[in-house]
Design brief:
About 35% of the residues are buried. A seven-stranded mixed sheet has the order 8-7-18-19-20-17-21. A five-stranded parallel sheet has the order 12-2-1-16-22, with helices on one face. It is α+β, with helices and mostly antiparallel strands. The protein is about 30% helix and about 25% strand. Helix 1 runs parallel beside helix 12. The chain has two domains: about 190 residues, Rossmann fold (3-Layer(aba) Sandwich); about 100 residues, no CATH class. The longest helix has 23 residues. The protein binds flavin-adenine dinucleotide. The site of flavin-adenine dinucleotide has 34 residues, from helix 1 and helix 12.
């Protein structure tokens, strides 16, 4: 008899499985895919290059406890992520910084814009593009409009398939403008990649005599949530242990209020007979092309694979829950969708032994560190640990 059933073997599910197993609880982890690791899963191409099957994942955090916790399962190598944007025939740093400014503007303009920005916001500051657009100074506003157009407008339209005005400001604010030459994509204290890839983390998290993993198993075939009587059934018998669900909540509840909207991606991998394809791990196509970005994985995996490389083009598309090829990648935040999610949430929130954790179950954008933090906190909450 199990004490805990966990649906999903991504970071949410695997972290919680590991924590419960360590206090001697018997844990069952179910995943519908044929592998553990959720969206961080990596596979090796025929040419030997290790790729992230569900899109590139770069680890970065300011959360020391999360970073230390993950180091129990793998060793990391120092890696600071740099992204380049292809704008008007130039490769320029993204987030837009002073180097990008110098590459795209004439030198007299550069001097004036820099002076004004530094005077208003201060050196090394990360400024929201929305603040620049609303600035009272004409020069700053003009500069803001340029960056908005070249970095945000088309890219956001490709990514979300709506005009930028309809995209939540939290999404736009993920990419600031940097008033300096720091060309790192993230400014977090800890930036690193797992030396042997992400899979090792999950293998080690789940390698415990108290954990059983069932792959190729859809929770819907085994779990039933009786929302009226606030009971959970596993394999047709009432289950009184703890159930943690990290899959999509609408799917589990039979889409009774309609599907929750997501953006999905068509991920197109290309193996190439050349040493390197592009000057950086990620190039964002912010003004041209149908794909949003190209990732070259050798830069991320730190592998030496001579005369061979693999790239990935990401084509955003509308998620269709009936299409088995589609993966729900990005929740679309707006009042309507959050209200719809709340209906699902309200119908399970009073079930004492049922917990939601993860980007799908909570209909939230969590970075990897944030979802591990959420799992650590949820464990403490359930176990009453201070
Ligand atoms: C394209 C993309 C790029 C990203 N890049 C980064 C990045 O660079 N850095 C970063 O920090 N974060 C990144 N993220 C976020 C990162 O993917 C999430 O933080 C992480 O996946 C959250 O883990 P999770 O366990 O909640 O979800 P997942 O990893 O999605 O795991 C959920 C698991 O549940 C399983 N499941 C779902 N439904 C069922 C069911 N009915 N039955 C059984 N199993 C089920 C799924 O198969 C899956 O394995 C990125 C996200 C995307 C979409």
């Amino acid at each position: 008899m199990k004490d805990v059933i966990i649906v999903g073997a991504g970071f949410a599910g695997s972290t919680l499985a590991n924590l419960f197993a360590n206090i001697n609880k018997k844990v069952l982890v179910i995943d519908k895919r044929n592998h553990i690791g959720g969206n961080m899963y990596e596979e090796t191409r025929d040419n030997g290059v290790r790729v992230h099957k569900y899109g590139p994942h770069i680890f970065h955090t300011n959360d020391k406890e999360v970073f230390e916790y993950l180091q129990k399962f793998t060793s990391f190598y120092f890696y600071e992520h740099r992204v380049i944007g292809y704008i008007d025939g130039e490769y320029v740093p993204i987030p837009f910084n002073f180097k990008s400014l110098e590459l795209l503007f004439p030198s007299d303009k550069v001097k004036l814009i820099k002076e004004k920005l530094l005077k208003t916001y201060g050196e090394q500051k990360k400024v929201s593009i929305l603040d620049l657009l609303n600035d009272s100074d004409d020069v700053i506003r003009e500069f803001g409009k340029y960056v908005y157009e070249k970095v945000f407008v088309h890219y956001t339209a490709k990514q979300w398939n709506v005009p930028i005005s309809e995209v939540d400001s939290s999404v736009i604010n993920r990419v600031p403008v940097i008033l300096g030459y720091d060309d790192r994509y993230f400014q977090d204290t800890y930036q690193a990649m797992p030396k042997n890839g992400y899979n090792e983390i999950f293998e080690n998290m789940l390698d415990n005599k108290n954990i059983e993993v069932k792959l190729d198993t859809n929770a819907k075939d085994l779990l039933r949530i009786d929302t009226d009587n606030k009971k959970i059934y596993y394999d047709n018998k009432e289950f009184k242990g703890i159930v943690i669900y990290s899959g999509p909540l609408d799917e589990l509840l039979e889409y009774q209020y309609g599907p929750l909207p997501y953006r999905s991606l068509d991920l197109v991998f290309e193996d190439r007979d050349e040493n390197y394809y592009q000057p950086s791990s990620v190039v964002n196509y912010t003004v041209s092309e149908k794909f949003t970005r190209i990732t070259e994985f050798k830069y991320l995996s730190n592998q030496v694979v001579k005369d061979n490389t693999t790239i990935l083009k990401e084509y955003p598309l509308t998620y269709d829950y009936k299409n088995k090829e589609h993966v729900p990648y990005y929740a679309i935040f707006n009042d309507t969708n959050l209200a719809l999610y709340k209906k699902y949430y309200d119908s399970v929130k009073d079930i004492d032994n049922f917990y939601l954790c993860g980007r799908l179950a909570e209909y939230k954008y969590y970075n990897m560190d944030a979802v591990v933090r959420r799992a650590l906190d949820l464990f403490k909450e359930i176990e009453g640990v201070k």
